[in-house]
Specification:
The protein has 2 domains: 141 residues, Trna Endonuclease, Chain: A, domain 1 (3-Layer(aba) Sandwich); 129 residues, Alpha-Beta Complex (Aspartate Aminotransferase, domain 1). It is 31% helix and 33% strand. The chain contains 8 helices and 14 strands. The chain is elongated, with a radius of gyration of 22 Å.
Length: 285
Amino acid sequence: MKLVKAERVYMKDNPELDERWLQSRIAEDPAILGLGDLILLNKEVSQPKAGRLDLLLRDPGSSQRYEVEIQLGRTDETHIIRTIEYWDIERKRYPRLEHTAVIVAEDITSRFLNVIGLFNGTIPLIAIQVAALKVGDHLVLQFTRVLDQMQLGVDDEDLGEQPPATRSYWEDRSSRDVLAIVDDLQAIIKTLDSTLDLKYNKQFIGLARDGKPSNFVVFQPRKQWLRMGLALSQSDENTSALEHAGLKPEYDPKWRRYVLTVEPGRITDRDAVRAIFAAARKEWE
């Protein structure tokens, strides 16, 4: 393979590469944003007394929608406010769906990254920096996620007060083979933090340190398999890592967790599972 040097093309300074051009390229293939295999719902969506939303995208596998605003050049205050305003209108219009605001800009400066970061966690917001690169006679669009949506996950209040249970309680409701999977996964977790122990509840088996819950992983044993919830943000990279580890990943946007099915003997790469647990623990903390 021959190494070639790419030349950066600033779209704001190029009359042929305006915002409508970029909007059309994303609309043709929303997956280029790196947010998953998304589908275009509409573009130039009229907002009551507030202009038009550039792109409205949805995830076909969930109730997740993305309100996308595009700006060439540097982000500014009006762009941030407009993005949040459109997101707020859409979530009020369709309150039963999950909504995420997305800013796409050529230059997301550290100053405005800090401003955007103030909203993260209270407003689900993703910032993506786009670069146009010229390689020979070809033009490449490169999208880099510089600020990800903070995954609030399922904290102890969301899970509610859980009635305590015992090991024998779960032995009666599942099987020794499936509980052996839980023990094996706990052993991997112990290599990350030796103070984490299993905490038996009637709804699930969680983790605790000195009696205090730390539920970045929760287990729900069944007779033939284990259902596991993992507090890890959704991404193609995380999904691929889970599949590589021999797990069957699905994503629950309501609880913002991966839901995994684990069968006896299906874990093929313990190092990969350990890396996944480490990432989930880091996000949780």
